[in-house]
Amino acid sequence: MTSFSADPADPDGAQRVVLSGFGVFSSIGVGAAAFAEGLRAGRSGAKPISSFDTTGFAYANGCEISDFEPADWIRDQDLDQLGRAARFSVAAARMATQDAGLLPEELRTKRGLISIGTTDGESRDLDSLVETEIRSGPQHMDPVVARRVRAGRLSTAIAHELGLTDVEAVTIPTACAAGNYAIGYGYDAVRAGEVDFALCGGADALCRKTFAGFYRLGTIAPERCQPFDVDRKGILTGEGAGVLVLESLSSALARGARIYAEVLGYGLNCDAHHQVAPNGASVGRAMQLALDDAGVKPEQVDLISAHGTGTRANDITEAQAIREVFGEPPRTVSIKSMIGHTMGAASALSAIACSLAIVHGFIPPTINHVRTDPECDVDCVPNEAVDADLNIVVNNGLAFGGNNAVVVLGKYEGQGR
């Protein structure tokens, strides 16, 4: 696409797509401003997990959100009918629309799309139901909790909360790449003129099932997440939500909206190589597909926000794939060092982080870094943010089963670059 044109639409008639609102719930900051501040400061969200019983685990740190007040954001439905992940999703959507300056009554007059990615859905509630069944029998399972476990609620509850009826509401379950998948889905719909706006992103809540699964795989770090470090020991599970407002450039200009960044393109693939092990060739292919879709050359990219989980396999595989595509790569960071692995919200929160970095002119650090693993060999901006003029940023999302999703974002300056 001709992403460097000042025209509101491409020559082929497709709309340019911009980001005009963010809803952020993370362990290092709630809201775009606080999130940007936490990223720049290199803040860590890691602390002992309190949301479920961690008895029997030798260590149990995570990146939990301790100051979430859903009633501050969810006003038009019964909170008891929503699990924690759906509460994150709905709250982030309301925050994003407010940030974009879009009132619900205005959105109700437009065609829209809601696409929310997730890994676990409401597995936290499933944990509770299974525990009740084991301890007391299925007859004692709470029917209110049982009714809210459907992952589809993460998107349909947004429509309910905002009173939207002329929308498609989908929940995308492609695990740790789901946020980028959701953004790509919205980008296509807005670009083609099928919808006037899209609310896209991801949400997940800490749950014992996922923590225990990663723990049994030997991929939970004892204390901190150290992507690309020679002594990295794994992930920390996290939680939260990131929802982005996508609309056409012409719509944003007509409204006088603030534009955070432009979506230049994306790439998806699934290699189905292994249930948990990443495939380097496929990861590289996804990045190249995204660059090709965006009309961007590797040397034009100023920053890569890596999937960067802090596991031995992911970081080596991803870094090598980056070098295959980019040669001498740009700075390559992992915000999971700060907010942990937020599962389906991960690449959505990372996309917001990329956009805030573009707007505020800085590169977030990869914290907890001591010495780079020679097999990774990237400049991960260790421990302290650096000032930078960023024009084009690549955001990687990689998932179990070989589901890869990469989004390319660019600075919008209101004129040709």
Radius of gyration: 20 Å
**Low-pLDDT ranges:** 1-7
The major β-sheet equals: 11 strands, mixed
Secondary-structure element order, as H and E? EEHEEHHEHHHEHEHEHEHEHEHHEEEE
Descriptors for this entry?
two-stranded antiparallel sheet, 13 helices, 19% strand, disordered N terminus, globular, 11-stranded mixed β-sheet, 417 residues, alpha/beta
Can you characterise this structure?
This protein has 417 residues and is α/β, with parallel strands linked by helices. It is 33% helix and 19% strand. The chain has 13 helices and 15 strands. The protein has helices at residues 32-41, 84-99, 104-107, 123-136, 143-147, 153-162, 178-191, 208-216, 249-255, 280-294, 312-326, 336-339, 346-360, and strands spanning 17-26, 29-30, 47-48, 61-62, 112-117, 167-172, 197-204, 240-248, 261-270, 303-305, 331-333, 362-363, 386-387, 392-399, 403-410. The strands form 3 sheets. Strands 1, 2, 5, 6, 7, 8, 9, 10, 11, 14 and 15 form an 11-stranded mixed β-sheet that branches. Strands 3-4 form a two-stranded antiparallel ribbon. A hairpin with a 2-residue loop joins β1 and β2 (29-30). α2 (84-99) packs across α6 (153-162), α7 crosses α13 and α10 (280-294) packs across α11. The radius of gyration is 20 Å and the shape is globular.
List the helices and strands and how they pair.
Blueprint: E1 17-26, E2 29-30, H1 32-41, E3 47-48, E4 61-62, H2 84-99, H3 104-107, E5 112-117, H4 123-136, H5 143-147, H6 153-162, E6 167-172, H7 178-191, E7 197-204, H8 208-216, E8 240-248, H9 249-255, E9 261-270, H10 280-294, E10 303-305, H11 312-326, E11 331-333, H12 336-339, H13 346-360, E12 362-363, E13 386-387, E14 392-399, E15 403-410
Parallel strand pairs: 5-6, 5-7, 10-11, 10-14
Antiparallel strand pairs: 1-2, 1-8, 1-9, 3-4, 7-8, 9-15, 12-13, 14-15
Helix pairs in contact: 1-13, 2-6, 7-13, 10-11
